[in-house]
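Example record used in the benchmark description.
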Amino acid sequence: MQPLGTDRGIDATAHASVGHARELIQSAEKLRTRRENANRKRFGRLFKDPKAIEVTITLTDEVMRIHSMREAITIFNHAAKKASVKGFGPFNAFGLKFIRVVAVGLPGVVVKLVHQRVRALSKDLILPAEQNQLAKHLGKRKEEGIRLNINVLGEAVLGQAEADERFKRLIEMIHRPEVDYISVKLSAVVAQMITIDEKGSHAKVCDKLRIIYADADTHGTFINLDMEEFRDLALTVDAFKLILSEPQFLHIHAGIVLQAYLPESHSVFADLVAFAVERNKLKGGTIKIRLVKGANL
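Model output (structure tokens):
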């Protein structure tokens, strides 16, 4: 085989990666339970109906998070109108239509039912954050030689109070002894990341990163910087390089995600490799670059 830098070497690596991925998929298919297969069909149906996705996002991001019962029920009523058999199946579609009828008279019961149903359907996809339950799950995976990347759920935030709450949850997770690998979206812990306010946003991001990396270094937790949108790319990479170049962080092992669908990721990858080589010479710190296809769009 020629060196990895040649086309033939790259092709061989790519083919080997595809082969490993295929093996993992085939192994996973054999291990799935009947309930997991049913869930796969349910979510497959959901993603074929844009209106069903809209309804689901409304239920999880609005109805389940709004404290005002009146507003939650109003939003639920509008969402339930759009529920179809195509996207939700007969049982869930009929259930949403039915509880919409009784929502006015029993708002508390309806909101509680929505919470219970969403949690039940996402049980196989989302791990519980409660320490005992999460520690038990992580312990089982560790026995199997599996290391889990924990992602504290939550997307971009708008208000400072919400950002502070997310940040608090993240730090609490870093402090847990059973957790050693966490993905962090800066848009989920920094309020008002505004593209045109590059200097202000950069300063806020760096302030948060210093706290995150300092705590992670103390507790032996690996931090992987994730991102949601193209607008996050330059800001995240610049902050990542700046903080990891500071003397107190030169020794740590840290990660960052690049989205393969972005043409800019190619040049950013090359820049990060050059940065990693130079940084490693100083104190031995290394970085891990995780490539994802960027499937959200």
